[in-house]
Amino acid sequence: MGSIIAIGGGEFTRREIDRLDLRTKELTGKEHPTMLYIPTASCDGEIDLYDEYYRELGFKLEKLLLIRDNPDEKTIREAVFSADCIFAGGGDAILLMKEWKKHSLDSVIREAFRTTDIVLSGISAGSICWFSLGHTDSLSYYRKDWDYLKMEGIGLIPAFHSPHFCRERADSLEKFMRHETLTGVGLDNGCALEFSDGSYKIITSMDTARAHIYRSNADNTYSVEILKDADTLIL
After folding, report:
1. How far is CA 122 from CA 175, 216, 224, in A?
2. Ranges of H-type helices in the chain
3. How much is the mean pLDDT over the chain?
4. What are the φ/ψ torsions at residue 108 (nearest 5 degrees)?
5. Dmax of the chain from CA atoms?
6. In this predicted model, what pLDDT tens digit does every residue of 160-188 receive, in sequence order?
7. How crowded is residue 104: how many other Cβ atoms within 10 Å of its Cβ?
8. What DSSP line would sit under 5-32, residue for residue?
9. How far is CA 209 from the centre of its chain?
10. What are the contacts of 220-226 at 24+ separation with CB within 8 A?
11. What is residue 217's predicted lDDT score, i.e. its pLDDT?
């Protein structure tokens, strides 16, 4: 089975997520692992964004461009199964899931996760995709009077994830959590949820970064637990 590093957010140009990406590299067990970068959430508009950064960290970078190249299933399978790790870029999470399902990439990744030791990573929309449910601002790409939505991911982490966690996002997530059976996982910038060796823990790359864990109660209320670096989590 594979591993997952779901990153809540952070600016790589300010070196805010180096430790999280280096943990992805460590989990592959390789000195120069092949990273498959999938920028679907930016409509393949950030094709070269991470080139220098990932090469500096020691990754060999490949790319899968679903929208621009419209690859067939054989090409997609070869790209996924030849990678040591995957990084899903940020942007529009709804677009990401629409295109992944259209190209059956979601099914291919699930298969690779079940049958290999691939490491899945991603930031913002690219972290939402690994969860059963995501708390997304994708409507902001389409209209001015937008609000946060609950959306489906590919279901590898059985929780409801909100990235870039802040007071505004908390106010919205809390409305959903009053009636949500899944655990809510709000990740600050510089904070990630790691799944490896069958268990979950929090890892951070900034001292103040935290995970905010919401659990619904039977009376339509919820409880919140704040987790810091190295804390474990049961979902």
Report:
1. 26, 27, 25
2. 18-28, 51-56, 66-69, 73-81, 93-102, 105-115, 125-128, 167-177
3. 96
4. -65, -40
5. 51
6. 999 999 999 999 999 999 889 999 999 99
7. 12
8. EEE----GGGTSSHHHHHHHHHHHT-SS
9. 16
10. 220/178, 220/179, 221/178, 222/174, 222/177, 222/178, 222/184
11. 87
